Amino acid sequence: MSRHASLDDLASFIEGVLKPRKHGKIAAHLAGCSLCTGYVQDLQQMPVMLSNLAFPPMPDELSVRIEAAIHTESTVRVTTPGSVSGEAGRRDLPERSGPTRQRWRMPGFSSPLAGSLAAVGAAVVIAGGGYEIASHAGGTTTTSSGSASPAHSGQAPAAAAGGQRAAIHAQNGPEVQFRANGQTQTAPSVRTSTDFVPARLQAQALAALAYVRASDLKAAQGVTNASPQATATAGGAASLSGCVSTVAAGRNVLLVDIAHYEGKVATIIVVGKPPAGPGTIYVAGAGCSASNRHILAQQQLPVQAP
Amino acid sequence: MGSRSLPEPRLPADEPTDADLLQAHIDGDPEAFGRLFSRHRDRLWAVAIRTLGDPEEAADALQDAMISAFRRAGSFRGDSAVTTWLHRIVVNAALDRMRRRSARPTVGGGDEEVLDSLATGRSPVSDPSGATDTQLDVLDALRHLVPDQQAALVLVDMLGYSIADAAGVLGVSEGTVKSRAARGRARLLPRLAHLRPAGAGNQESRNRSGSQRVLPAQEGGEDAP
What we know:
The complex is a heterodimer of chains A (about 300) and B (about 220). Chain A is built from 9 helices and 9 strands. With about 300 residues, chain A is an alpha+beta fold. In chain A, the strands form 3 sheets. Chain A has a 5-stranded mixed beta sheet, sandwiched between helices. In chain A, strands 1-2 form a two-stranded antiparallel ribbon. In chain A, strands 3-4 form a two-stranded antiparallel sheet. In chain A, helix 4 (about 60-80) crosses helix 7. The longest helix of chain A is centred in the first third of the chain and has 20 residues, at about 60-80. Chain A is rod-shaped, with a radius of gyration of 27 Å. Chain A starts with 6 loop residues before the first helix and ends in a 5-residue tail after the last strand. Chain B is mainly alpha-helical.
């Protein structure tokens, strides 16, 4: 009997990548060697075994983190002069995604992010299309671009100026009270100049949720410096609280964004189980109150890949 | 073995194609890249987690890759599908991490936990016992492959991509993909010899004589043709 073949040669034989002469030698050897034939069978089974290995699916948390990083890139891209589509303007950016990078943890480990969300039960969320962010937290205004122009109801300054990219500002809205887990909880609301639209509702809501996590904006529990404009359009804090309580129906509130939906004043409310559980987006119209939900649209989160 | 082609999700007629989205992103659309990511994220994650094993490293690699793709979109030449391009960036990010990892000494301890969580998809804290021995053995064996071989096995064997698609992603010839996959399987087999289904042929004798004969060859030469 001829010499046994090495596993390398047998595996290469199966793939048909051996030179013809060697291929022929191994074929001849296999005809009379049950040992090597057995290895060939084992090697042929290997793809089956490998394809059956179970791996964890992509955690929602990671998806959110990466979407946040992408939106942060968008922000930087727009606010860096001359860098809109060229490579040059971006070359000096840090390779890492900067301050928003968060160490991801397996669900079950304590994460600072999960902690802050779970503890507060709600989150201040900023930005829809994701450009220039301005937020009021505890009376301090910060913006990513250094300009601190306050947001006004339904106004998107850059869009108004004819720019392709709307600068989206956001600031705290009134504090919202809602019932969850059998007790009254408070959640801050936020006002963005996002005009939510049906086709992009999930993406816009995800972007908003992503931002709160990326910016790690602590939901400023007890913030009371709601701006006058904030209370004006949505019928006041009391009405807003009634609306949110009714819509949330005992679930945790992740996002209350007093914004627009198809050009009309609307409150976008995201409820669910933070941070990884399923959620629902509700779009409540201007008539939303404790006794009338006035839901204009409703969609599930997270968005599954198409 | 299955050879599924690089997945292109079926899109409704009014949905932009991947190429449309990438172009929109280059033109400044702030949401286009995010849509591209959510369209492919599960497959890209599948590549990263299978290549790296460690969920945290896979997460970091995927994030690095997406930011890199975001920034380099302008240099995409359109000579491959957008999906192929995205896969390539993820594979490269994962391989970079593998090489860095193999350059530093192995840290003892904690491995069991990582493998547990890997195989079960749950945190080791919440489920200490879920992983099967088979999975742990295979995962452990995979870590002994050189990165190029592992990348080939991830794409071809684990994910079932065609040789042609894998070659496109890896930027090498189809013959090279086949060679790498073959060598990878040859290296894995001795480490998994005990996993053969019971009662398969002349298992006893193959186990004994096989591992003695074959193992030295495994440690031998790496990158031939």
